[in-house]
Amino acid sequence: MRKTSAVLATLSLAALALSGCAAAPSFAGDSCDRAGNGDAVSSAVTVEGEFGSAPDVEVFSPVKFPKTSFEDIVVGDGIPLVNETQVMTTELSIYSATTGEMVFQSPYADDSESLSNIATLAPQFPGLASVLECATGGSRIVAGIPADGVTDETRNSLGLDDGDAAIVVVDLLKVYPSRADGALQFNDARNMPTVVRAADGTPGVIIPDTDAPDELTTQTLIKGDGAKVEADQTPLLNLTVVGWDDREVKTTTWGANPSLDLPSTAPEVAQALVGETVGSQVLVVTPASDSGPALAYVIDILGAVTAR
Prior knowledge:
Layout: H1 6-9, E1 26-27, E2 30-31, H2 39-42, E3 45-48, E4 56-59, E5 69-74, E6 87-96, E7 102-105, E8 115-117, H3 118-121, H4 126-131, E9 139-145, H5 152-158, E10 166-175, E11 182-184, E12 194-197, E13 203-206, E14 217-224, E15 233-243, E16 249-252, H6 262-265, H7 267-272, E17 281-286, E18 295-306
Antiparallel strand pairs: 1-2, 3-4, 5-9, 6-7, 6-8, 6-10, 9-10, 11-14, 12-13, 14-17, 15-16, 15-18, 17-18
């Protein structure tokens, strides 16, 4: 049995170079069904134990799955996964469907908070990635994944033989929101950028025909009802940065992986977020300086991660 996997360890967002939901969720704009065709896997395995703790699993091996099969053993009432870049925290136990042997298990520790998303999972474990679409935070899922749903690299790392299917028990501990969600705020400050939003929350920034402020200026555009960002936490963000003078987008995380980099790339902007609440959208304008031009940051605060 292998307790660690070099391939699965790469799923942490911290290692990446980059930098409210309806009752019937959709994934990437397409409606989806959590029915899952779970008969195949439910007849091949029993799963017992508390959500968030290492499960007690019995596999009636050998078993094969002609296609991916999954069942939501526990249906959580948390946020659903609605796109591939949305951040989640999980615990995983993986078994060979041929031998019933456990080949990987994550720590199931209170201080373990490994961030990942479907985008980082799909190239390595495409069958598992598809199982998570529209799943809600707080869910425990058991999945039977055929051999073609596991890449050769992942198979070798786990020690699965060619042709082996995998059985995976996933505890979806938490799903972070994909966008700001809260009450729109009235701001009467003049000569500040205007922010418009697409249906998925992607912001557009309209810079006024005036000089940029000569000091860092902050406006809360949407007030979320989450916890306040603390000084010792790293904010998880979707952001768009636009140059004041040239009106060009300098960087954006929308459509890519959310950012944990702000404290290192723009510490003064990160400091301005301390005390803001998770779920908020904040506009921060930094003045021109010797180190660069004036910039407008539109920031959706998706979460706040405490260093461990």
